[in-house]
Amino acid sequence: MSAVATTTWLVYLAAAVCFVLGLHLMRSPGTARRGNLLSAGGMAAAVLATVLLLVDDGDAPAVGWHGGWWAAVALVGGIVVGGGYGWYSARRVKMTAMPQLVSLFNAVGGGAATAVALADFLRFASEGTGSGPALAFGVPVALDVLIGSVTFSGSLVAAGKLQGIVRGAPIVFRGARVALVAAAVVATGCAVVTVASGAVWALWVLLVAALVFGVLMVLPIGGADMPVVISLLNAFTGLAVAMAGFVVDNQVMIVAGALVGASGSILTKLMADAMNRSIVSILVGGFGTGDAGPGGAGPGGPGGDGTVRSIDADDVAIQLAYASSVVLVPGYGLAAAQAQHELAALAAVLADHGVRVGYAIHPVAGRMPGHMNVLLAEANVPYEQMLELDAANTELDTCDVALVVGANDVTNPAARRPGTAISGMPILDVDHARSVVVIKRSMGHGYAGIENELYTDEKTGMFFTDAKQGLAALVGAVEQYVS
Amino acid sequence: MTPELASSISIFVLALLVGFEVISKIPTTLHTPMMSGANSIHGVVLVGALLVGGLADSPVGYVLTFLAAAFASMNVVGGYVVTDRMLGMFRRRPEPPDRTAARAPDAPEDHR
């Protein structure tokens, strides 16, 4: 190894260490920001070292700069355009739109990995060695193009659904299932041909078939399942980048790809568990339309006779002001109504008055893992008040008032009984609180399309209003009682 | 199988295990920044874009180089910036009451 190659190798190793330590520092909100900076530092060093390797021709003819002016223009142009747009969108994005942006970054990561493998394979093919590629080159190229393209098109559709450009409800058309299988068969066949013969056409057909597969895979998946889909695509991108690392024989890419693959897999599992659904059944699709059957929620759950008790802002304010502990249960409806700030204001008034306040956050409360926590953090909610499922349920067992805003299925006690659409799903035990208040616009259903037995529980009061206005009214009313 | 491939596969498998180990300890509160941070890590594919760019010698190669560089830079720049922005919003209670006061010196960076 030349001196430059050795230096580059050492920098790559240091970068990989920075990535791991960066993730390690994310174990606590207090150190997480430092961890992200460390990771970014490692990334900058790895990129600079690669530039150094390219500029210095050295004695390694396989790397070095052979590209000429046009390649340099393409590289610099790409970095300026892509980096600029990435910077702009990262600064401008609203926190509610975070899932779309993460999905978009998944897409471009997969797209970049695909482009790298394609470019390297085309160059190999143009050298015309006559024989097929070595397995150690052909297999990662085929896998990279396959996984990368599925991620690219799939993530774009997912981002489109989250943004509302593509209809969020599952899109199912006649023959979709057949087309999906056909795309999978064509892609697999072409992958085999590519590896065996090194035929360039096979790789192009593989690319197109995988892109089609990605679109068809995500279209039938409903909005409620998005946290799982995003996590899964995140894992895919990681694997695609790792494969790209095998293609260009670069170990820092392999390490980084494996880390992301691991993180995506863990999140996918956590999210699927939080909804008590298997990953396969989510991918098969159809959830989120309310077509999951009538749900079998028998008439009237325990303690309910089917009638609801409606209450107004004053009633709620009295309950809150005289409580010693209150648990707030936010759901995606809160974010949709942009009412996080009003909720945080209410919590602050109560906390100042000496009431113990916590937020019970279900793992699928937002549109991606941990989304609700970010939305609350933006509204200046201190992270100590954000309770995970188990901690939240401990708190709910003893609290005086549970205030539910915009959450539905994750609070439905019906999940504890077998035979309903949500049976077995881990829920927040809101019905264990001494009294319950639900802020809701109407008696509409959640994604599962079944009645929420919590609403007919005799200790539940329904405060029918818009979340933002209702919470603002509560802040005013509570202030009157506590001052 | 070449020794290089064998060592690459070992690295891949071990890195997966390290990933599972490190990431399973991250609290759910930080899952969105973690996913977005992991996202920026796979932006390291920019290194791959640079490497293939260095060998590109055909119009198709130039186009693919441009796409790879643009996608990867968007991924890496956007990912780190947005993760930093999110993490900057996570803060402790403004005035720590008695029981957290002892912990305050541990976290000077929280006094923003």
TrEMBL record, chain A:
Its main location: membrane. This is NAD(P) transhydrogenase subunit beta. SUPFAM superfamilies: DHS-like NAD/FAD-binding domain (SSF52467). The lineage of its organism: Bacteria, Bacillati, Actinomycetota, Actinomycetes, Micrococcales. GO terms for molecular function: NADP binding; proton-translocating NAD(P)+ transhydrogenase activity. Its EC number is 7.1.1.1. Residues 10-475 form the NADP transhydrogenase beta-like domain. The chain crosses the membrane at residues 6-25, 37-55, 67-88, 100-122, 134-159, 171-195, 201-221, 228-248, 254-272.
From TrEMBL, chain B:
GO terms for molecular function: NADP binding; proton-translocating NAD(P)+ transhydrogenase activity. Residues 91-112 are annotated as: Disordered. InterPro entries: NADP_transhyd_a_C. Its main location: membrane. One of its GO terms (cellular component) is plasma membrane. Residues 9-92 form the NAD(P) transhydrogenase alpha subunit C-terminal domain. Keywords: Cell inner membrane, Cell membrane, Membrane, NAD, NADP, Translocase, Transmembrane, Transmembrane helix. The chain crosses the membrane at residues 6-24, 36-56, 62-83. Its EC number is 7.1.1.1. Coiled coil: none annotated. It comes from the Bacteria. Residues 92-112 have a biased composition (Basic and acidic residues). It is a multi-pass membrane protein. It is an enzyme of class 7 (translocase). It is found in: Cell inner membrane. One of its GO terms (biological process) is NADPH regeneration. It catalyses: NAD(+) + NADPH + H(+)(in) = NADH + NADP(+) + H(+)(out). PANTHER family: NAD(P) TRANSHYDROGENASE (PTHR10160), PROTON-TRANSLOCATING NAD(P)(+) TRANSHYDROGENASE (PTHR10160:SF19). The transhydrogenation between NADH and NADP is coupled to respiration and ATP hydrolysis and functions as a proton pump across the membrane. This is proton-translocating NAD(P)(+) transhydrogenase. It comes from Luteimicrobium subarcticum.
